[in-house]
Write a structure and sequence with these properties.
2 copies of one chain form a homodimer. In chain A, 70% of the residues lie in helices and 10% in strands. Chain A is built from 6 helices and 3 strands; from the N terminus they run H-H-H-E-H-H-E-E-H. In chain A, strand 2 and strand 3 form a beta hairpin. The structure holds a DNA duplex. Chains A, B: It comes from Kineococcus xinjiangensis.
DNA sequence: CCGCATCCTACTTGATACTG
DNA sequence: CAGTATCAAGTAGGATGCGG
């Protein structure tokens, strides 16, 4: 009875989930569009890095987020994690071939960003000014 | 006194924000990497769409999220919002030149995703299997 | 030195109801 | 039809302390 509307929404959500699950782009976006993943991949572009180096290099990422991000990238086969069981332990991260194949795409995105960021910022200012005027 | 921890958190956040503010790529990623923005831009690729059309087409996005996403895109100058004051009101959204210039990049990302999604999924399975074995 | 586990906060998202 | 406001809930992010 009163379930009709609720039901329809639930159905829509299921359809949506099914759609999302089938969309490779969104799955990839979930990884590369992640708050830190892009930075990490970029930081690894030059070569292998140790955990601590990345932490310094990316300043702002908590140790937790860094580890979490690295593990996600490792899981997706974009980076390898090499543990050297010395004392103390040493851990190196390096891009895999798959990870490196992503670099050009990231570069393209970066290029677009750097090229158009001004337009975006200008548009943003104009928009905000308009908003302020209306308020 | 009890402000110390709070204070440090604020400071750290400021440093982080300053870093982020200087990175055009991250600013752009914040928009295009958004959960819905990509879908919306794609849905608008063919031409102008009404609010309701997008809602149908993207099924799964709540009306709130759709509006929120569209406003963000409008703010960044990627889409235009045209209101026709008829009864009832009609609103059309359309990609701007800037928005269309983003399409190729999105396509590149999509292409990479479709090409490598299998590798990613394979890596993911292998990783999870390894995890399960360890647990 | 690395990373895991815990706790806690804040932001994001979604459902619902109401206005123009 | 389009959009806004409010409230509840889930999730991501961060601080801290412990273990390998």
């Amino acid at each position: 009875m009163t379930r009709t509307a609720e039901q329809r929404r639930t159905d829509a959500k299921v359809v949506y989930d099914a759609y999302m699950a089938l969309c490779p782009t969104r799955q990839v976006m979930a990884t590369v569009g992640d708050k830190w993943a892009g930075l990490v991949v970029n930081a690894l572009a030059d070569g292998p890095r140790r955990h601590g180096e990345l932490r310094t290099r990316i300043a702002g990422a908590s140790q937790k987020m860094l580890t979490q991000t690295l593990r996600a990238l490792e899981r997706d086969g974009l980076v390898t994690r090499t543990v050297t069981p010395s004392v103390p332990v040493r851990v190196d991260y390096e891009l895999t071939a798959l990870g490196r194949s992503l670099l050009p795409v990231l570069q393209a995105l970066k290029a677009w960003s750097e090229t158009h960021i001004e337009d975006v910022l200008t548009a943003r200012e104009a928009y905000d000014a308009r908003e302020a005027a209306n308020a």
